[in-house]
Amino acid sequence: MLKILCVCGCGLGSSFAIEMTAKAVLKKLEIPAQIEHTTISEAGAFKSDMILTQKTFADILTADASEEEIKRVVVLHKLTDKDEVEAKIVAFLKERNLKVADYE
Predict the structure, then answer these.
(1) Confidence of residue 99 (pLDDT cuts 50, 70, 90)
(2) CA distances from 100 to 12, 33, 72, 79 (A)
(3) Which phi and psi (to 5°) does residue 93 adopt?
(4) How large is the average pLDDT for residues 48-62?
(5) Which of 24, 21, 4, 31 is nearest to 98 (CA)?
(6) Number of CB atoms found within 10 A of residue 15's CB
(7) pLDDT of residue 104
(8) What is the rounded distance in angstroms from the CA atom of residue 29 to the CA atom of residue 38?
(9) What domains sit in the chain, N to C, each tagged with a CATH number?
(10) How far apart are CA 44 and CA 61, in angstroms?
């Protein structure tokens, strides 16, 4: 199952908005996923396949990260734009040679 972490500064506002948007997209794509939201300071304690966040927090997450960890971070420009979230999730899966059907 795909594990997604949504990250923001306080773990309440924008990360929750990203989570709700991502859940709607994943439901549409019929991809089962475990999705959670958290603060930037607690993000390192979570195991995830993908991290959805905005640029400010992506820069912090990738500052001392390994190449593999950097590849997990997906930057969103419009946090509640379902089209952008869908495109980024699909691109993430394709980059790893995974198909939407792999998660059905």
Answers:
(1) low
(2) 29, 12, 17, 22
(3) -65, -40
(4) 94
(5) 31
(6) 26
(7) 43
(8) 24
(9) 2-103 (3.40.50.2300)
(10) 8
Tokens of 82: 């379902």
pLDDT tens digits, one per residue of 60-93: 999 998 998 999 999 999 999 999 999 999 999 9
Q: How far is 13 from 36, CA to CA, in rounded Å?
A: 13
43 with 20: CB under 8 angstroms? no
What amino acid is encoded at 70 in this protein? I
| SS3 of residue 78 by DSSP | coil
pLDDT digits 0-9 by tens, 7-51: 999 877 999 999 999 999 999 999 999 999 999 999 989 999 999
Residue 79 token pair? 């946090």
- Distance between CA atoms of residues 2 and 10, nearest Å: 24
Query: What's the token pair of residue 48?
Result: 């995830």
Rounded Cα distance, 30 and 78, in Å: 22
